[in-house]
Input
Amino acid sequence: MLTLGLVIEALTGYQAAGGPQIITDVASDSRLSIPGSLFVALPGERTDGHFYVSAAFARGAIAAVVQRDLPADFPVLDLREPLTFERAAAVAAPICLRVPDTLQALQTLGAFWRRRLAVRVIGVTGSVGKTTSKELIAAVLGTRYRTFKTEGNYNNEIGLPLMLLKLTEAHERAVLEMGFYQVGEIAQLCAWARPHVAVVNNVYPVHLERAGSLEAIVQGKGELVEALPADGVAILNLDDPRVMAMRTRTRARLFTYGLDPAADLWADHIEGRGLAGVHFHLHSGRETLHLRVPLLGQHSVHTALRAAA
Output
């Protein structure tokens, strides 16, 4: 379990600090703070989390990570200074943990906690259909494994570390959505999440105004397969040439899906039946299954293929 002591260890390297108080959750929105939680005060364009530290404590948070001095009379442990046993022993909730940068602290904590867990991570990216794919993949894995999935679309430099901190020792699989706006972003998300499996949906000119070019989108999405270990698996959409171009960028084993019989997993005899969903034949080697997926539109077949893969 994540404890206040482990939080301080993650942020300082000091292993004898903070005590065994269990952290029940980590939130960057004070309204989501619950008894025993950790609140991370992030400065933003519209507001500043430091204004809501008191509100988080009122809701039961036992600690807050802050990057500036607060007017309220809360005890503060300044993690910018070397810890001693005496300073560490004096830690008592509620307490503010002073750091140079709260966003960096959140990311460091998320990566620290992920490294302690044996969970197998499935990273999902693509221009269209990430969230639906994530939901269906998690539903399939959940029939066999204790499975965690990204909540909503918490898939960026703030959301993904928060999701990592919701993982527990009980989870066996984690399906994590990874968003993209610019080159280097998914590589950073992967450095924290350490995925074993990559699922790439498609590449379209989405968020082109921020990415700059379609080539940049291809480069950025491909960072997910680049991050895989040699014993990982890259699951690629054979029907998208831009996705298949990523096959040369990974050490991992390739597994393809699509409507082309050349794929490892492919579908044909597709029949849309309106509210009754989509019917199709699923092929894997010499095996064929007749399936119905309760999703609308023939494009849902690719979503189902991703989950099956």
Summary: The mean pLDDT is 93. The radius of gyration is 22 Å. DSSP finds twelve helices and 14 strands in the chain. The longest helix spans residues 102-115.
